[in-house]
Amino acid sequence: MVHFLQTLGLVLTTASVLTVASPLPQPASELNDAPTKVKRATCTFTAAAAAIASKKSCSQITLSNIAVPAGTTLDLTGLASGTEVIFSGTTTFGYEEWSGPLISVSGSGITVNGASGSKIDGGGARWWDGEGSNGGKTKPKFFYAHSLTGSSIIENLSVLNTPVQAFSIDGANGLTLSHITIDNSAGDTGGGHNTDAFDVGDSTDVTIANAIVQNQDDCLAVNSGTSITFTGGTCSGGHGLSIGSVGGRSDNTVSDVTISSSTIKNSMNGVRIKTVSGATGSVKGVTYEDITLSGITQYGIVIEQDYENGSPTGTPTTGVPITVLTLDGVTGTVSSSGTNIYILCGSGSCSDWKWSGVSVTGGKKSSSCKNVPSPASC
Ligand SMILES: *[C@@H]1O[C@H](CO)[C@@H](O)[C@H](O)[C@H]1NC(C)=O
């Protein structure tokens, strides 16, 4: 048996192209029983089904010009620890009305990399109808980065035209996403809606660095989580860099979030924190530093504790306090029809704020701010 497995390991190690659905003469579980005796293979796949069938037996998975069939997830969940996934060439998806996701990856110590010149093309225009996730066609989510742990990395991906939300980061603990480009600019006139770039929930130690995003909703939305960093980003066309809405979910705690050295242009909002009316939870230790705004159409900075069913009520509540908030170097311009700064806090539910170098100009000065803690001002 030992001799057989060594032979098998050698075969797998030297195989560079595996395109059949079941290349292994033995089930994967048997291989896992002898991890020290079998070296996992370097695999290249040209079909999604083959990649999914053999994913656990490969140490490196190259996805070469994969056309994922309609209604199918490119399911790379449960990868063996330390697996490297490489998107190469152009990845495309068949059309079907369904909720997705188009891609899902989980595991520990996973690296996902886009090879030079590669693209992942969501073909979103086929679903876009201006309604996003609020109605119309059922649209597949793009990428579930769920349960990625142990210093996992998603890097160098060039994403085009997601049907609706792009990256859902959930249950992650130790995940870095860097140099990810999401170009949904065709959706500006083509009916793209709710195309959030990065939605973070229930996660710890997540870093998103050097993202370039053109979309029609939040560039970042942190709904819950601890030790979340977004840095070096460029966001255009969307709704800005957001915390929330916080409250009314299973996890309603946001703590230690740093959003730094980023640019937000031609967007509805710049810096935004929303908490849910009547809910409980907390937003503590959020820092925005070195943020540059331009072409903001609604609010340069907006912090409000009155969200209900996705819309502001105008009446703030106190159940999700926003404490230890730092804005340091948030500067730039709002269009003349927009508002520079809007802060709507409940009585006593915003405290321990630090503001320095905050200068947002060009828009209107709000006259409806409430319970603004010093040294902030509208
Ligand atoms: C991402 O691209 C850079 C530049 O080409 C490269 O140095 C880096 O190793 C790539 N990341 C991964 C995970 O392969």
UniProtKB/TrEMBL annotation:
Reaction(s) this enzyme catalyzes, per UniProt: (1,4-alpha-D-galacturonosyl)n+m + H2O = (1,4-alpha-D-galacturonosyl)n + (1,4-alpha-D-galacturonosyl)m
Matches recorded under InterPro entries: Glyco_hydro_28, Glycosyl_hydrlase_28, PbH1, Pectin_lyas_fold, Pectin_lyase_fold/virulence
Keyword field contains Cell wall biogenesis/degradation: yes
Signal peptide positions on this chain: 1-21
Record localization: Secreted
GO molecular function terms listed in the Swiss-Prot or TrEMBL record: polygalacturonase activity
GO terms classed as biological process: cell wall organization; pectin catabolic process
EC number: 3.2.1.15
Gene3D superfamilies for the chain: Single-stranded right-handed beta-helix, Pectin lyase-like
UniProt similarity note: Belongs to the glycosyl hydrolase 28 family.
Protein name: endo-polygalacturonase
